[in-house]
Amino acid sequence: MADSSTAFASRTNHHNLEGVLDQILLACDRDSSEWVSVKDVMETIGNRSFGPLLLVPGLIGLSPIGAIPGLPGIMAVIVIFVSVQILFGRDHAWLPGFLTRRAMKVDSVKHGIAVIRPYSRRVDRLLMPRMTLLTRGVFFYVNAAACLLVALVQPVIELVPLAGIVPNAAIVAFALAIMAHDGLWALIALAFTGASAYLIAMAF
Q: Which of 48, 172, 195, 204 is most buried (CB neighbours < 10 A)?
């Protein structure tokens, strides 16, 4: 018989925001450690779940945890690795050890989730399969390429105070589009990508 954590994981929804938050909490509670690593989260989500693997770094960037020095850069590198592997047609994601060993305080992660959760329920009510052409086939790779570009320029955008919210919002929107096959969120993500380009112009 599967244990309770396995049963919980099997019920978790890979296609909405609140389900991914639940998976992060599950990773936090896997053992008694005060730290949760990227490897813990990745093993809980699964390395074939490209949407959630893009979503988590974006969420961290939008949450209070994103204020930790150096963390936004690490999250951007994770997005770059996942996006590149999508573009190369891999069926699962791989991250190098220097990324998977990175860890955050469990209490900080849980606080960040508590801040995001009320908004996640509202977002999930807006998610649905629509305009699916914008999330499949060649557009799936277009979305991944856009995530890659946003992550690459994110360090420059961070030079503008509070501007880091915009590229992280773009990554979150792209991830939600991929997870829910929701083309409207892909369009929203492209709007945030355009805003990111504008912020780069401001930075220079």
A: 172
Contacts with 43 (C-beta within 8 Å, 6 or more apart), sequence order: 27
In contact, 169 and 62? CB cutoff 8 Å: yes
Domains in the chain, number: 1
Contacts 24+ apart (CB under 8 A), 20-25: 20/45, 20/52, 20/55, 20/56, 20/59, 20/179, 21/59, 21/113, 21/116, 21/117, 21/120, 23/52, 24/56, 24/109, 24/113, 25/110, 25/113
Instruction: Choose the weakest-confidence range: 1-15, 104-118, 158-172.
Output: 1-15
Its pTM stands at 0.87
Whether 80 shows a pLDDT value over 70: the answer reads: yes
SS3 for the chain, per residue?
CCCHHHHHHHHCCCCCHHHHHHHHHHHHCCCCCCEEEHHHHHHHHCCCCHHHHHHHHHHHHHCHHHHCCCHHHHHHHHHHHHHHHHHCCCCCCCCCHHHHCCEEEHHHHHHHHHHHHHHHHHHHHHCCCECHHHHCCHHHHHHHHHHHHHHHHHHHHCCCCCCCHHHHHHHHHHHHHHHHCEHHHHHHHHHHHHHHHHHHHHHC
Does the pLDDT value for residue 3 go beyond 50?
no
162 is in which domain, residue-wise? 4-203
